[in-house]
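dumping this here so i dont lose it
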């Protein structure tokens, strides 16, 4: 095969996508090249729009479009809905997994990772705004849905401690989550029952 620099660069980039290797990357790129107007152009436009407009709200942690106001409590558009529960997860993939089970109807709070044991790392997690949300939004239950990993459980404990002086019910996903199991890698059935059978702390 003749090496074409532009194509090789694209293969290199696409190969980094999760679940794709160089072989499937080549197939995708060939499909794009053979369908420039029908597939490649709308893909480029969609990518540019996501690149330019989508970012993570630094208050609640959800992905938002720059068209939505989502900065701070007062105008965080995600907070306009009226729910009484907040589900705390590590990342957006976890949020999407829980949403796909249809068992939960409420706010999400996306921490952006876990506490790794070092105190300074927790500063980057958005935990302070979680406390503020619980206080200001009349929340009656905080569901801590962090992974069954050491880091996830340490983070859950830290959140419990942070919220313990606030009058709010705190619950955790039911036991039975495989140890080391990350929320996003659980099947819908397991996640559904872990959520349904959650226990109060
Ligand atoms: Zn927000």
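and the seq i came up w/
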């Amino acid at each position: 095969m003749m090496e074409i620099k532009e194509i090789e660069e694209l293969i290199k980039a696409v190969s980094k996508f999760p679940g794709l290797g160089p072989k499937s990357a080549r197939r995708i790129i060939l499909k794009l090249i053979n369908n420039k107007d029908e597939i490649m152009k709308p893909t480029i436009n969609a990518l540019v729009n996501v690149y330019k407009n989508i970012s993570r709200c630094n208050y609640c942690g959800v992905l938002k479009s720059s068209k939505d106001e989502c900065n701070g409590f007062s105008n965080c558009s995600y907070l306009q809905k009226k729910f009484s529960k907040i589900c705390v997860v590590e990342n957006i993939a976890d949020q999407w997994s829980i949403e796909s089970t249809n068992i939960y109807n409420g706010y999400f709070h996306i921490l952006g990772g876990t506490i790794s044991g070092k105190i300074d790392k927790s500063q980057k997690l958005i935990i302070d705004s979680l406390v503020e949300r619980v206080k200001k939004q009349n929340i009656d239950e905080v569901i801590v849905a962090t992974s069954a990993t050491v880091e996830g459980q340490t983070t859950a404990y830290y959140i419990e401690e942070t919220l313990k002086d606030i009058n709010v019910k705190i619950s955790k996903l039911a036991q039975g989550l495989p140890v080391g199991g990350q929320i996003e890698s659980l099947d819908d059935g397991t996640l559904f029952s872990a959520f349904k059978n959650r226990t109060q702390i």
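Residues 57, 59-60, 62, 70, 76, 78 surround zinc ion (CB under 6 Å).
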